Amino acid sequence: MPPFEIENLSSLKQWEGREFPATDWFAVTQDRIQKFADAAEDRQWIHLDPERARRESPFGGTVAHGFLTLSLLSYWLKQAIHIRSGVAMTVNYGMNKVRFPSAVHAGAPVRARVTLLSVKESPEFVDTTFLIHVESQSVESQGVDSKSSSKPCCVAEWLVRYYPQ
Fold first, then answer.
1. pLDDT digits (tens, 9 = 90+) for 66-122
2. What whole-number distance in Å separates Cα of residue 113 and Cα of residue 71?
3. Which of the listed residues 42, 69, 109, 162 has the most CB atoms within 10 Å of its CB?
């Protein structure tokens, strides 16, 4: 689905409080989990050892790192909204809250629901706070129900700073 179009940075404020259409589904493959483990130096067996994870973990198989899920927020924000003009640069300014209520199983499709919580304008930049709910579909191959999880796999308040042109 194409992103929701916002005319320019100056008009962003009018969308405050708006939930935008959900993004497309994105599969979190075991290969992606492996690459993230290598990049983050986090090689815990619940992420990388499918046999052991199937036998010993409460998840029934390998799961993605929470930080891998979190790292996809910028990807999803670009899918959710597009500001047509007036933006010179966008900066990740930080997080207010982050939670991982449920696991993302290897191979599971995930998508995001993005809400623009607040917009604070100044002459030098525009600060925004987005509430992002990431939801996951379970993977049947790991013996898990194929419906969407009732709990999101990530809920984050993300601070994004836009610098005008």
1. 999 999 999 999 999 999 999 999 999 999 999 999 999 999 999 999 999 999 999
2. 15
3. 69
Structure tokens at 48: 């990388």
Characterize the bridge pairing of strands 109-121 and 154-164: unpaired
Exposure class string for 134-165: b at 16+ Cβ within 10 A, else e: bbbbbbeebebeeeebeebbbbbbbbbbbebe
Q: How many CB atoms lie within 10 A of CB 74?
A: 13
78 by DSSP, 3-state: which? helix
Per-residue pLDDT tens for 45-72? 999 999 999 999 999 999 999 999 999 9
- 0.85 surpassed by pTM: yes
Give the start-end residues of each E strand in the chain.
4-8, 26-27, 81-85, 87-99, 109-121, 126-136, 154-164
- The pLDDT, as a whole number, for residue 148 is 55
